[in-house]
Write a structure and sequence with these properties.
Length: 696
């Protein structure tokens, strides 16, 4: 009994119960600072609300959850609007954006208002975030509206429960239980997304099974749509372009065949009968073996327009992916998407968005921007980022992606002169796009902590915040996330932020320094495999990209090489064209650089690579030391989880370092210069490690 009492006492006093990460950044643990807690409690003690709908219910529930957790109070709903401390008010506000909100202090009341109940929900989450991050709730005068209309997650989930490139367990969607059983996790998912402004979700893999649009599955999709709707989240599906053949028994899926277009129209009508606010279809066509219009001698334009026509009467969208790269033996995969889509600019129907990955190849560790961001003047392009760490060390490497997203969004396309940043392009500012969108390929799964690596939750959080405002800094977002997630002291908060903000560059250094790219394990994409010289397609090898030989390394994309640089506007092209002026981080993306060429850092290309491999791997030790310093300041379960993963990361960083150095030495025959010591293992020894990951 005494032990039990002691235990109960310690639980209440120190708030140290084990944290499995399930609550994400919405932990709502009691605020320790008494003055703040009292101040907030007073401001939330009574609530008046002037509307009543599905969203108002979840909004009130959220306030109650936050107040009972953070403040240990239960707010009272009252009828008298002048007496309430907090007022939720539906009505026209100055900013006409349907998702905008205002939070204002007026006569000692906090008034959260919006043009829609959804806007108010976002305002409420903003107020809660302020409490979680110890910010003042005095004299508020906040207006906020999303700069991007569609802020989405794309799940690469299959109907058998697996997730393509997923490292956090199985799919969240339990298709075999739906539509009858609604897992409470779907609600937690919706809350988390709404809290960061995400308003769309594509439930299934872009390598799409046609099954998702059968009546059986549509019933399940409807059940999910019903759960998400109050949280302002619309459901989308990825579809298989050959569905009219696979499901409809037609002889063809030719987009210009009237029977085919009629089939899609009927299918779309069927979908909207069940889900009137359905978002639309995502299509991966003629890419990596997926069917598409080119199978029938047609074009991406023909395919997209035919489907868009079916969706238009329902205000649905076609999100057509630009990730296409037919192999051209003389060509450069870098140029493929631009070559395929630029020519159709202006010919797509208005309800079509072209979804473009941030870089021209494929979510590599560091990529220059896709030239399409500066090129599509009459067709909206959207940003596709990848949250799941396919090329970023799966769930064992701690890589905070915020700085990478920020680097991409701040890049200037020079499309309309200086200042035409990628952020401005996707906000629709540069070319006046009528539809705007940013998506993240989800990193969620059935693991209790959602993302496998506890720190990967931050990448999900960041996507939402950046989609709301692409000009937010990753430092600010990291600050919010750490405060909301860890509720720890100022010093530990700073330490965790420091690790986060450095982590992406550290990972880049020990895996892909100076713009080396596509040198990861073949097909599974884990660990180093720069020696892949043969694959089903040459542009799936590593050699195709690094082109190492006795003289140098890197892909010449200047006029003397593939000339893919010509796809950029001159301002950006100029930054990359000159081998002597290019930022070292992008060097090998655009130049075949001599091993012995001196860089601005004072070292030769080879010495600089070696230095980055070694310093990068060593920096993981610093991450470990920094993390060790927060022991006792963050929850023990999370502490140990991250500590263990860092150990693996350290081991794998050394593996990357040694494998890369020993492999490239075969070409340049140059030594590992002091102060670094050559790897103690042989090339053959390191090479073998990767075989573990091959399931072939
Ligand atoms: O990054 C590559 C992945 C594929 C993925 C493809 C895509 C869904 O290796 O697994 O397929 O991109 O984005 O379509």
């Amino acid at each position: 009994m005494r032990i039990l009492l002691l235990l109960a006492f310690s639980l209440f006093t120190f708030n140290t119960f084990a944290d499995d990460g399930y609550r994400l950044w919405l932990k709502y643990d009691r605020i320790q600072n008494e003055t703040l807690r009292k101040n907030y409690s007073q401001k939330l003690s009574t609530i008046h609300i002037n509307y009543n709908d599905e969203t108002s219910k979840v909004t009130l529930l959220e306030i109650e959850k936050a107040a009972t957790g953070l403040l240990k109070i239960k707010p009272q709903i009252i009828q008298n609007s002048t007496q309430a401390k907090l007022v939720l008010k539906l009505g026209k506000i100055e900013n006409a954006n349907p998702e905008a909100f205002e939070i204002k202090t007026l006569n000692k009341q906090i008034i959260i208002s919006g043009n829609t109940s959804k806007g108010i929900l976002y305002g409420v989450f903003e107020m809660i975030r302020r409490m979680q991050t110890s910010e003042s709730l005095e004299n508020l005068k906040i207006t906020s509206a999303p700069k991007i209309q569609l802020r989405m997650l794309n799940h690469w989930d299959n109907n058998n429960g697996t997730i393509e490139r997923g490292y956090a367990g199985m799919s969240l969607w339990k298709w075999y239980e739906l539509p009858e059983r609604i897992d409470t996790r779907y609600i937690e998912y919706a809350r988390a997304n709404a809290s960061i402004g995400i308003n769309g979700t594509v439930l299934n893999n872009v390598n799409a099974s046609a099954r998702f649009i059968t009546p059986e599955y549509l019933g399940k999709v409807k059940a999910l749509a019903d759960v998400f709707r109050p949280y302002g989240i619309k459901v989308f599906l990825s579809v298989n372009f050959a569905s009219p053949k696979i499901l409809g028994g037609l002889k063809t899926a030719d987009p210009l065949d009237p029977e085919v277009s009629q089939w899609w129209k009927n299918k779309v009508d069927e979908v909207y009968k069940l889900i009137p606010d359905f978002g639309g279809f995502v299509v991966k066509a003629n890419s990596e073996g997926e069917p598409g219009p080119m199978d029938f001698g047609r074009t991406h334009k023909d395919g997209a327009n035919m489907m868009a026509e079916a969706l238009a009467p329902h205000k649905g969208l076609i999100i057509w992916r630009a990730f296409v790269y037919n192999f051209d033996p003389k060509g450069d995969r870098f140029a493929a998407a631009y070559n395929e889509f630029k020519k159709f600019d202006g010919e797509f129907l208005p309800n079509i968005i072209i979804q473009v990955k941030n870089g021209p190849i494929d979510f590599q560790v560091r990529e220059p921007i896709s030239p399409l961001f500066g090129a599509m003047e009459k067709t909206p392009v959207s940003m596709e980022f990848q949250l799941t760490q396919e090329y970023l060390g799966w769930a064992t490497h701690w890589v905070y992606e915020g700085p990478m997203f920020e680097e991409v969004l701040k890049t200037d396309t020079y499309a309309k002169g200086k200042g035409s940043t990628v952020a401005k392009v996707i906000e629709g500012e540069v070319f006046k796009y009528p539809i705007t969108s940013m998506i993240g390929v989800a990193n969620t799964g059935s693991d209790r902590n959602w993302t496998g690596h506890p720190m990967a939750q931050a990448n999900w959080y960041t996507l939402g915040r950046l989609a709301w405002n692409p000009e937010m800094t990753s430092a600010k977002i990291a600050d919010e996330w750490v405060k909301m997630t860890f509720h720890t002291d100022a010093k530990s908060t700073e330490t965790i932020k420091k690790i986060m903000l450095e982590s992406r560059e550290i990972y880049t250094n020990y895996t892909n320094p100076l713009g080396v790219h596509h040198v990861m394990g073949e097909s599974h994409h884990f660990g180093p495999e720069p020696w892949v010289e043969k694959a089903p397609r040459p542009d799936w090898t590593a050699l195709y990209y690094h082109k190492a030989d006795s003289l140098g390394i890197g892909f010449d994309r200047t006029e003397k090489g593939s000339n893919s640089l010509a796809q950029y506007h001159s301002g950006l092209k100029d930054l990359y064209s000159d081998i002597d002026k290019i930022q070292p981080e992008f060097l090998l993306w655009f130049h075949h650089a001599p091993w012995r060429m001196k860089l601005s850092t004072g070292r030769t290309v080879w010495d600089e690579m070696v230095s980055r491999y070694y310093e990068g791997a060593k920096a993981v030790e610093q991450m470990q030391a920094d993390w060790a310093s927060v022991k006792g300041k963050v929850d023990q379960e999370t502490f140990e989880n991250v500590e263990a993963r860092l150990k693996t990361q350290r081991k794998e960083a050394l593996w990357w370092r040694d494998a890369s150095v020993l492999y490239f030495q075969k070409f340049n025959k140059m030594p590992v210069a002091a102060p670094y010591q050559k790897p103690s293992r042989t090339f053959e020894e390191v090479k073998q490690i990767v075989d573990v990951y091959h399931v072939r």
